[in-house]
Design brief:
Layout: H1 2-33, H2 36-56, H3 60-71, H4 77-111, H5 116-119, H6 125-144, H7 149-171, H8 177-201, H9 216-250, H10 253-267, H11 271-289, H12 293-320, H13 322-329, H14 337-352, H15 356-361, H16 366-386, H17 392-407
Length: about 400
Amino acid sequence: MGVIVKQSVKGTIYVYLGVILGFITTGILFPRIYSPEQFGLLKIILAYATMITQFGTLGINGVTIRLFPFFRNTENKHHGFLAMVLMVGLIGFIISSSLLLLFKPLLIEVSLEKSALFVSYINYLFVLIFFQIFFSILDVYYSALLNSTLGTYLREVFQRVLIIILIGFFFFDLLTFHQFVLAYIVALSIPTVYIMLSLMKAGQFSLKTDFAFLDKTMIRSVFSVSAFSILNGFSMNFIQNIDTIMITKMVGLSGTGIYGICFFFGVVISMPSRSIYKIANVVSAEAWKTNDMKTIRDIYEKSCLTLFIIGGLLFMALWVNIDNVFHVIGPAYSSGKWVIFFIGLGNLIDMATGANSSIFGTSKYYKVQTVLLVLLVVLLIATNIFSDTSSCFTNTSFSLIIFVSFIY
């Protein structure tokens, strides 16, 4: 638990620095400098890249979280584990890029009517997907080495500082919007290079292979965990991003921009949980390996209490000041008021159940979690389809409440 506390505190500091920076970008700068359609473009690019990236990792992050304790051996470079996951990442990028090329004409067709701006930038998804796949793999690997804070710093702080600088360039007409979008994609890609160099500096970047360590039992475990991790991770990302994609199709990029701004405020409530879940994954996997039920119990009970108190206070503070929020971001976004409420409430329910997903997902019952998530995807799509355009924001947000209630 000492490792969890130490890294959770450090990670939470980075998360809240990210909240401040995120508020500056999403709450102040984007609504005032960019049109809802322009911000919607940035949201939809990131949403598609995130979903495709999750498939592109081919479930190897689940293998890292669950099985790395069996590979851990500093002297033998962890039996070539990093080389294995990087090879999987490269194969995943080739497969996901091929599928994107295959479905690109269909994606263009469904976007032309209400989201024509997105069509102009669809090819840049390939670059973003490449860097996000390898950032995801290296970040989880670094976390397995009991350093879960670097990736949090890069995503929550470093990356957002770069984006604020780029917004400044755009505001002072040093960049056109087209140039800004390209620079935005570069800013999202730089953390991958940073984390790779950090691993090299720490002496943890090795391309040594040790296939002899992969006996039949381990190979079966790797393939089993990978298969269910693909479904698990893709379902989670699908749940988190499908609203953005469906709103773009039903309403257009302007609606996506409004939803994206309001979604940010609802998600602020869950920020403290991110650093806890990240390190809890690693510690829980180690505890399950040795059947240390006391550690498992401590992780669950303490995370439930801590996160519920923090989440409850943040939710009350946010809703009491909801009118002030729209005073800051502007009346053009007022139709997203209930997005903030439902997303916030959904995240509060999630936090009240603590690090249960980390514990459950690293246990021998991880397959059950995957089945429930797949069922939830079906439920989420159904509730969104039954919503009409005028009530789109309320119904899509309500689906996320069903999500946290159903899974956790």
